[in-house]
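Researcher: Quick sanity check before group meeting.
Model: Go ahead. Protein one:
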Amino acid sequence: MDLLSPWSLAWLGLLAPLVALYVLKRRRQRKVVGSTLLWEAALRDLRAERPWQRLRPHLSLILQALVLVAGAIALARPAGGGQVPAGARLAVVVDVSSSMAAREPDGARIDRARDLARSLARDLPPGGAMMLVAAGAEPEVLAAPTADRARLETAIDRLRVRGPGADLEGAVALAAERLRDAPAGSRIVLLTDAAIAGNVPLDATVPVEVSRVGEPLVNHAIVTLDVRAHPTEESSDRADVFVRVARYGEGTGDVRVRASIEGGRELATRRITLSEGEPTSVVMSADLPPDASARGSVVRVTLEPVDGEDPFTLDDVAVAPSPASRRLPVFLVGSAPASVTRVLRADREVELYVTSLERLAEREDDAPPLDGLFVYAGATPDDAPAGDSVVVAPTGAAVFGVALEAPVERPTLVSWEEGDPRLRFVRFADVHLGAVRPIAGGSARALLTTDAGAAIAALPRPDGETTLVAFDPDDGDWATRPGFVVFFRNVLERARQRRAAGGIPPGPLGAPLRVPVPEGQRATVRTPGGATVVATSRGGVAVVDVPAEPGVFVAEVDGRERFALRNLVDPEESDLRPRATFTRSDGSGGVATVEAVEHREAWPWIAGALLALLGIEVLWGTRKGAPA
């Protein structure tokens, strides 16, 4: 038995003034007498006597003292934490999936798991050691086996919800590996809400105990969000906001679904009734024009219960780019082959600007940066622009640091990367190229290879990617094939999607942001909750550890903003009811079920005893014939 709030025992100090009151107070009975003449001497003696009297046992004093003791122990929150035999090791595995952020009357589930972990750390006997493992999508050891209470407290404080998914099996296996040679009596304790569907095998060389935190909760969630273009005669910017919501739990409940522009006006609101097992779809129409920089606005959808509060807020907010983000500014720099220009002009969602390197060099230093896809034909600048770019038929000796060799006439095609998105539905069988300048390796990743070397390659960078086509498509028959058009459409679609995503690679809720930043510089990220997180770039990327919050994360680098959208639209995580079963091998080829022990603290029982004692004390103090 351990105390989760031991400082609350300080309330026992009230016993001292309680006893003092009983020492100072004389207990007398009220009587009716015919005259006070005979009492004068007693009154003189009473005035002269000392106030302190010998403590006499009273039932009311005993009851009141028991009330104080029971109240102090209840506030200290006693709980069974278990003991580790002397010299043995304990591994505590804590589930840090999204569902552990669900709030209950006594706090979030992850907070209860922290309290239990602290209880286990305090119960370590001399010679015992404890390790801490966070069970997220990838298990992480927060503290190696140690008896240092301060180090364990620091590691426990680092426990926080990481995002969807929890590899409980892998986390237990990792802990078991670290306890492979541990002394007898060592064990693993798994703290989880068991809000996972299916069986979780927990095979380990040491005993595994599963302690469940959290009660089954009713939850309403956004499980799908999509924003699609739906132009009409009245508005070319009309779009449909498609939202799918669900209820996890018995009964029915009313919710409001609100759609708005991130940081701006409200678009529409719907009130619907949800029932268990019956997801409901809502479609709301709105005009979503692009902003001044031709970027589409971000649509924010929130879910609000009409009555009461939702215990799980991570799935009550979802964000998505509007269809206006498909409008892609394309800056065509140089004299491009006619076939390339024709493909760019044929895309209705491309805003084409024809310019030159000289005109770009004349732009003022304080002019806003151009935001879109750059297509270079012939000469290229020394450095690649931020974002995506395409280079066709280069004329220089190198492109963005990648060398080009001398032209080779009519090389034979050898292979192409069919799995790359740019080559989706693109075939080069029976295609004949003209002169090709083979791409000389370096950081380039070959997409189309000839017997002379790479003819098309990808040049990845932390802040974008360049697609290098090292030949003139019009010099040969590729431009006459359907695959040529499909290739450039794929390139445009890839650039469009990456631009709509905000310039930061997508990732799950709670995952660190990988912000492209020049080496050694800092990236400042503003979270949806308004907090600011700063990280320094290493290798051209700043890895920013951000909280598990849905919404828009805005990163500022060199005065330029990039953003990342994070959502939790996962029915598995939104169902907060315990559904997992835990099993392990019984040693004879069979499988045994590991029963999850629901963690229950003892303080509610003590609080009930306190109320009972108070009732008895009131009855005793108000009984007939009790002294006044």
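Researcher: Fine. The other one?
Model: Protein two, sequence then structure:
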Amino acid sequence: MDFAEIRDCRNLTIQSIVDHYALIQPEKVFAVFPDENSEITWAELQETSRQMAQYLLHQGINPGSRVGMLRGNGRAALELFLGVMYSGYTVSTFNPLAGESALRYVFSHSKIQIVFVDEENRALAEEIKKDQMPGLKIVSGALNQGLELPSLLSPIELTEPSALDDALLIYTSGTTGRPKGVIHSNSSLLAGGANTVAAHHLTDKDRALCVLPLCHINGQVVTVMAPLLSGSSVVMPSRFRVSKFWDWIIRYRCTWFSAVPTIISYLLGAKDKESRPRLDRLSSIRFGRSASAALPPAVHNAFVERFGIPLVETMGITETAAPILTNPLNPEGHRIGSPGKACGNHVRVANNGEVVTEINAEGEIQVRGPNLMSHYLDAPDKTAEAFTEDGWYRTGDLGRIDEDGYVFVTGRIKELIIKGGENIAPREIDDVMYQFPGILEAAAIGIADDNYGEEISACLVPSPGVVIDLKALSAHCEKHLGRFKTPRAFHLMDELPKGPSGKIQRLKLVETVSKDN
């Protein structure tokens, strides 16, 4: 099975990929877990996956059923995530940080019969079981150890799932209304992984650092499915830590990492010695990758200047199994401020059903390709709304495409600020604020106003130890944006609300600021 075969994922499954590499490189390490001081080979991954199949069958869970996962990153989480899909079940990944109300909803909505939890999440799972799901089986385990399943007593015959069978149920962050349950097949997940492999020229010699949660599509597809497909490996600590990040890169000789803009900002703002490595010790790393939210150009340029590592801006969403756009690996081809060109799928912009063909004309970004979800769980109306009549997925993002095919995202349709009848993209204001010294995070929002309909406010998190001169910041914005687009008010905060991917949730900021006014 070479990459040409892997790139076409229409007939592949997680089971067939794991079996392939367990056969040809059984003793090679697939994953390293720094917090547990352990690692797992391809042969061991195959063994634990088969144990999972036997265990679920002995628990009376029929293949094709959904199996819940409420765990932090680590060996058990990775074994569970891949083992459930390998066995012909659908893994339902829940975000431990989603909050009790959201977790109660997704437990019930997913119709899981069994859920695997770590010690930190057991009490809540037990409460949900007692209050609303008496038949739910809860399997609890320590955070920093592997799955504890019975050994295989006798060989079992596994029926390989179809490439089009459901493999993953993952819930959107639910910034408005209830979270939607996104269903991906083996094929669409692997297509997302193949897009990552192709975009970043990954080989079996590469090693990813995964600091994003395994309950999010970026961690699942970019830093797990891509190493799975390329026969390479991944380093998975329990969580992101500024003080450990570069040590992990150096110690385990990682060749690339995937992060979100917030992580990039924290790495830049760190002052301690461990967070400022000697550049000659970073020789193993080929590139860093930013996704899940817009990367401010000022932050992008500062990171490359500080660490000397090419930073590839990309774009992906849950419904498309992560990557849909990427810049090339060669820094000379980077368009700062753009997440790049289509990779492995087709991208267009359209307005009210009409495809935009004019260069740099704005419209909604739409996607079509093998990496698209199959549907939203038990929501046919929402599924229908998400696609155009000719089968393109509607991202809800506004953007334009330049003469070379690079896409520039200008904002979210629902997050546009409409002041005095003029549409203003918050990102334009964000980018200017990030150019001001001492700002760690920034987000412009629209607040209801009697005169203009909406007025602009900005929410800010200063870098540690920095005091922001708000008058000077306002003057900076007016110089670069003009008075009309300059925020009327600036709100200093300890942190900005984010979804599981690290994307700032502007609509929650609107609610917070509106209540305080």
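Researcher: One line on it for the slide.
Model: The longest strand covers residues 439-449.
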